[in-house]
Amino acid sequence: MPFRNVAVGRYEEFTHPGTLKCGLAEFISTLIFVFAGEGSVIAYAKLTDGASLTPSGLTGVAICHGLALFVAVAISANISGGHVNPAVTFGLFVGGNITLFKGVIYWIAQLLGAAIACLLLKLVTDGMTTSPHALSTGEPVWGALVLEIVITFGLVYTVYATAVDPRSPGNVGIIAPLAIGLIVAANILFAGAFDGGSMNPARSFGPALVALDFTNHWVYWVGPLIGGLLAGVIYETLMLPSEEQHEPIPSDY
């Protein structure tokens, strides 16, 4: 059951080589994902002289995010589990699949990876500004919040079904990273027209930090975290029968 398996962990995890290796994997994967994803947004702005995002442009951005996340998850899955997202880490925490202390290391690594990716983008594009996630004209804040909850729920539920569930053939191999990349691309194709389709607080944090624009930034934290929480609780409670429920990942190595 969720919450029953939640574990704080031990202080030693903060400095254990295994945890630090996982943190490094999350840092690199998040950097790769955000560099490509935010890079596609910057490239579109350059190619169109800052014009508004068109349907074809949104399609390109969504595909780029999906492919980049597919790779980012695949290259870190065997090391850290390939979270690449604080909402995924939180969703797995409430299900007892990662300890609190280890999750904090993941969060720090993910946020640093996103921030450095955006700083690198600003450097290599001769100072072009990053584009923080923002609500479209007429989109209410509550609407964006609910949207982020729903699409992040879909993402974290997909993570559980393909990468966490021990009955899934995708927990080792290519199926899980591919499914995760595809759901993100699909969600961006829809939600991108309303609030940018974040699903990932780190993906929103990096551009906002570099651009120093945190307008409505809380939406891209609260929404994804609630979505991740709901996905973790529902999958662990309803989709994993107690006799088949997997054991929490040990906090020691």
Task: Tag the structure with descriptive keywords.
mainly alpha; 8 helices; Glycerol uptake facilitator protein; globular; 253 residues; 0% strand
Biggest sheet statistics = none
CATH level-4 homologous superfamily = Glycerol uptake facilitator protein
- Gyration radius over CA: 17 Å
Based on the coordinates given, report the CATH architecture.
Answer: Up-down Bundle
Number of strands: 0
The outline comes out as globular
Residue share in helices? 55-70%
- N-to-C SSE series? HHHHHHHH
| Helix run count | 8
Transmembrane segments: 24-45, 57-79, 100-121, 141-160, 172-194, 218-238
Keywords: Membrane, Repeat, Transmembrane, Transmembrane helix, Transport
GO cellular component, one term: membrane
Main location: membrane
What does this protein structure show overall?
Belongs to the MIP/aquaporin (TC 1.A.8) family. TIP (TC 1.A.8.10) subfamily. InterPro entries: Aquaporin-like, Aquaporin_transptr, MIP, MIP_CS. Its main location: membrane. Pfam families: MIP. By secondary structure, the protein is mostly helical. It has a single domain, classed as Glycerol uptake facilitator protein (Up-down Bundle). 63% of the residues lie in helices and 0% in strands. It has helices at 17-47, 55-76, 86-94, 100-124, 141-164, 175-191, 201-211, 219-239. The relative contact order is 0.19. The model is unreliable at 249-253 (pLDDT under 50).
